[in-house]
Amino acid sequence: MKIIAIANQKGGVGKTTTAINLGYCLALANKNTLLIDLDPQANATSGLGIAQDKFYGTYQVLLEGIIKSESIKQSTHCPGLFVVPGSPLVASLEQRLTTGHLSSQRLKGAIASVSNTYDFVLMDCPPSFGGIPVNALTAANSVIIPIQCEYFAMEGLSQIVRIINKVKTEANPGLFIDGILLTMYDNSLQYNKEVVEEIRRHFGSADASGQTKVYKTIIPRDVAVSEASSFGKPVLEYDITSRGAIGYIELGREILGYN
Ligand SMILES: Nc1ncnc2c1ncn2[C@@H]1O[C@H](COP(=O)(O)OP(=O)(O)OP(=O)(O)O)[C@@H](O)[C@H]1O
Ligand SMILES: [Mg+2]
Questions:
Q1: Which fold has domain 2-254?
Q2: Residue nearest (by alpha carbon) to ligand 1 atom 28
Q3: Is the dihedral of CA 162, 150, 176, 202 positive or negative?
Q4: From CA 58, how far away is CA 36, in angstroms rounded?
Q5: Which residues are near ligand 1 (CB < 6 Å)?
Q6: CA of 148 to the centre of ligand 1 (A)
Q7: Which of 225, 231, 239, 248 maximizes ligand 1 atoms within 8 Å of its Cβ, making it the mutation to test the pocket?
Q8: Distance from residue 124's CA to the centre of ligand 1 (Å)
Q9: Residues measured by CB to lie within 5 Å of ligand 2, the ion
């Protein structure tokens, strides 16, 4: 089982879109996939056509440290994709997770309880540095960091990398960055190209020896992606021929090592 946190403290960079569409791709590739919606906004939950679950979803999982079958719902859009739904109530746990009243190992223990059932566990993190993302990083084998192709992307990146290294040192020595994912790329904008070059220069390209740091796949900006979310669907279901959908299929293939 691979446990992947999708994290960036910066808001609106494509975390949830990546969680939903990558989850969808992995499930299409016959990988049993569980998406845990850790964000009190619960966008991943609604984006997969599932109702928020005030008590029995992520809230219960974090509180009890176990994933019970009642916490797991099937995506209405993809039969092989399962979801632990989020709800605004999850925010009420943030402080207890941060101050240590609930352990930073909570999620790790909970995920261990389903380790025989899933090939992939994806965790959609909220845009913060608090106890919830730290719990996710403590439970994860690796991290996907989506970043928007914007000028200030680099600045935010060094912060998240610092947090990842801190969790790695203190709690999770095996943790690594699976890759930085460039999102919302517009090839008509010169500065988007410059940002891609800068990120690749700084972190190394996918072809560099050793660990992959920046995915070869770049997700294009595509209006179909935002349209799909307004219909509560992954773009892969909304329009599989769209550039956004094709981008996520490529990402899925890259992560599965099919490329
Ligand atoms: N490739 C894309 N092309 C066009 N729009 C996109 C793309 N990816 C994401 N969006 C849109 O950008 C907005 C932010 O995306 P998303 O919700 O995935 O980001 P996030 O990082 O999860 O945000 P938050 O930090 O608030 O949780 C959404 O409205 C989404 O539909
Ligand atoms: Mg989100």
A1: Rossmann fold (3.40.50)
A2: 226
A3: negative
A4: 7
A5: 11-17, 39, 41, 43, 127, 183-184, 219, 221-222, 225-226, 229, 244
A6: 9
A7: 225
A8: 12
A9: 15-16, 43
What is the Cα–Cα distance from 209 to 117, expressed in whole angstroms?
A: 33
Please report, to the nearest 10 degrees, the dihedral formed by the alpha carbons of residues 143, 149, 152, 155 taken in order: 30
Predicted confidence (pLDDT) per residue in 33-88, tens digit: 999 999 999 999 999 999 998 889 999 999 999 999 999 999 998 989 999 999 99
* pLDDT at residue 208 tops 80: no
Q: What is the pTM of this model?
A: 0.96
Task: Determine the Cα–Cα distance for residues 142 and 160; give it in Å rounded to an integer.
Answer: 13
CA 148–ligand 2 middle distance (angstroms): 13
Pairing relation of β-strands 81-84 and 2-6?
A: unpaired
Place of tokens 């845990």: 36
Indicate the domain borders of the chain: 2-254
Give the residue-averaged pLDDT of 226-247: 95
